[in-house]
User: Fold G_PROTEIN_RECEP_F3_4 domain-containing protein from Macrostomum lignano.
Amino acid sequence: VGFEWLKYHHDNRERLLAQIRRRVGHSIVPNSKHNLMPFTSKLLKQFGGQVKVVTEAESFWTPPAFACQFGRWLVSYAVPFLNSGTADQLDIGGWVVLQFELERVEINQCRNESTFRSLYANNVCNQGTTECVHIPDQGLSDTNFYCKCRRYFHHGNFSGEQVRMQYLLHRKGSASNYSSLECGPCPAECPGSCATNGDCLIKHDLDILRALPLVIQTFLMTVCVLVAAIVFKTRRNRVIKAAVWILLEIFILGVTILYLTVFLMYLNPTYEICFIIPWFREIGFTITYGTLLVKVYRVLCGFQSRKAHRVHVRDRDLLKYLAGIVAVAVGFMAAWTAATLDHSRRLHGTLESLNCSSADQLSGQLILEDGKVRKEDKELSFRVCAVGYWDAEKLVFLLLGLFYCYCVRSAPSDYSETRYITAAFISELVCSLAYHVIRQDVIWDRTHPDYVYLMYFARCHLTVTVTAALVIVCPSSGTCTARLKTRANNRSLMYSQVDANLVRADEPDGHRG
Assistant:
């Protein structure tokens, strides 16, 4: 290893020299800025100021080779250098050889490149039924590719390490399972699409059941953008000022993010999609209902205060509280993502150590599941994002919001805002609880995914759209803007410490008690 340049020099010396001589020389004229050594100045005079240089055309990469003494794969890059003779005596004086360890180099073994052709892995996969697929960020190893079933075939995917080991045994004539590492044809009923177990894949109704909700979502998201612009333009209106216009804008942002989850549900489930949907759902939910929670919290602080003066929570403080809630949600989702990926990696390693051919598929079921549905005496398969119990934390958040709403049930609020927020929390709690019960125990992996998508779409509007209408439309409409009448026996007086010392201004002195 490292001496390939010697053979290359012997076979290509004259060709390289002729190539260099034909190349136009580079002019170098020494001046005050060039501090040249005497030897270099003499050499320039011999060449008449014209210097022949070596370019990338004369260099070459050597094929990868395994260095037994180091136990590593090495690749070399060789560049020739010229001697110090005259122009007529131009010759190659030697070679500079750089060696690199391939374990740290990202090499796509599925690409038939001339430099790394000896590592080409596509011929390791069964050419008739499988094809090589590169896995990035794995370095040079048998784990940076796998053999994927071609279209019209099924079985599952085979790891590169497993295939290469069986392939080498097959080439040596030893006993191997290489012939079993191939995919079978899809059934005649669905030759173009079948699952890894051979079942026909379900066909989605992209014209009506999925396209129509998508159009409605697009319209409502456009409405959200228009409402946000209207709120900003009319931010000095007393109704908008009472609701704190910046919180309304943040609330609309959360609603828009929740609407985006319906777009993501429209797509075919993949590992990436099944990770993105919970993030959008969690952040959108936290922004939307976190905004309502801090608004109720401000009413609670002013209503249950036992001080002589009214406690007023500034808008700046509300934004800080909301930012803290969102930060907790982001941390929770980051921990969930890290735990899921780590669990999947550990499970995959355990299954591979047991020589399980379905290690990738089984470890992936932590986030992506297989579902089945019967249609016309046939079983159709489909993929669906896995359901996790971690989603129950939203119910705890809603219960906290309802507790705050209960505490301020008798408190006066501008435009009955707390009543509408209470209704929004109840709507989200009831609909989400029903949705989770049905999804978890009844239909999730046994119902056509188009109907599951419609159920998710309906849930979105029974919660998000209703909440947006209660928070934005109702306080601004003519029938909802009537203020609550101040009552003499307001509950705030029950909590005040100074009401016993207050004297009614219209009472005569003799009746003061």
About this structure: The chain has a mean pLDDT of 74. DSSP finds 13 helices and 14 strands in the chain. Residues 315-353 form the longest helix (39 residues).
